[in-house]
């Protein structure tokens, strides 16, 4: 008689796992109504800019993330673009970026008129590999977008040393890492700048939105100008100093973010605690392994809970078959974004428009064929090894018990998955 649900057995979680998101209550409603009733739906409408919901959010978020400055913007992609432009990145510059993350990390580089150079990942952490970064540096390399993928921080000690040695401007892509700490300090201003997303799925969200964080006053001023159509604080309103877009956040979004900030620290602690518990259990299980433990990570603000499927312990069963079995048990396990960024059609087919810029830009003058890019660790991890669980599952301790039970059950009955 079959034991696994995929073969007709009883599932571990017949109704699936509890994963309500977003979490909101009457405080959020009142915050949005406060902004609505003010009639000032754009931060520009306040006589005193300090009264703006967005301005107050910037102060609160900077303080939460141990940064001196924050500029709120329209979305996370814009945040990366703004940070790069504020850092002086221009046409013809190469920017290093990991191959395993959401595509926006690389598209923002294109929007900044620079050239994405894809870098392989560390096999034990799934984060950008500092040694591979150094190997990818050329005379045209000016910056790196370092992603804290899944909320697990990249090796910021090694990256800081590399940046100092090779004069790299570093943007931390923190879209997955709200609340993540490295050596007791929040990510986002550990090096030059951080870029956050507040899109609906993020751990701090207002539907759409983003922010740039930094400790550097001059960089913050440039970011403010670039996101504000080239205006400069303190100068006449219709005086524009640089060619730049409007990436401003609305007051309604700012008010909602301020309200959402109230519950954010406790939610982060809950996810960190439950993620740590799952990792501890998984460390003693056959067939799977958590990402490498690192004492320098003092808090992890999960977006994905990522772990490794150890194919050599499954007697020929493929990771994708394991995923099917877990889903049948009621555990929504997946493979995050599925393929490395450079394998997407936009890079394989150069979907950059009629002229092919910035790749074909005369300022660059080199040839890149993304169809020939090979990054073996990233490609193997996404094709055969990586398993992801959504952050929302970590909000309920009971989910952890069910995930553990399902992992043990599927491995114990793995013979049923053959054939």
Order of strands, widest sheet = 1-9-8-5-4-2-3
**Tally of DSSP β-strands:** 13
Which structural class fits the helix and strand makeup?
Answer: alpha/beta
Note the quaternary state here: single chain
Order of helices and strands: HHEHEHEHEHEEEEEHHEEEHHHEH
The portion of residues assigned to helices is 25-40%
Here the CATH topology of the domain at 26-261 equals Aspartate Aminotransferase, domain 2
Q: Could you explain how this protein is built, in words?
A:
With 419 residues, the protein is of the alpha/beta class. The chain has helices at 26-38, 53-64, 76-86, 104-111, 130-136, 156-166, 217-227, 251-283, 319-328, 345-348, 376-385, 397-412; strands spanning 69-73, 94-98, 115-119, 141-147, 169-173, 181-182, 185-186, 193-197, 210-214, 288-290, 297-299, 304-309, 386-390. Strand 4 (141-147), helix 6 (156-166) and strand 5 (169-173) form a beta-alpha-beta unit. The radius of gyration is 22 Å and the shape is globular.
In short:
The chain is of the alpha/beta class and 419 residues long. It is built from 12 helices and 13 strands.
Topology record:
Blueprint: H1 26-38, H2 53-64, E1 69-73, H3 76-86, E2 94-98, H4 104-111, E3 115-119, H5 130-136, E4 141-147, H6 156-166, E5 169-173, E6 181-182, E7 185-186, E8 193-197, E9 210-214, H7 217-227, H8 251-283, E10 288-290, E11 297-299, E12 304-309, H9 319-328, H10 345-348, H11 376-385, E13 386-390, H12 397-412
Parallel strand pairs: 2-3, 2-4, 4-5, 5-8
Antiparallel strand pairs: 1-9, 6-7, 6-11, 8-9, 10-12, 12-13
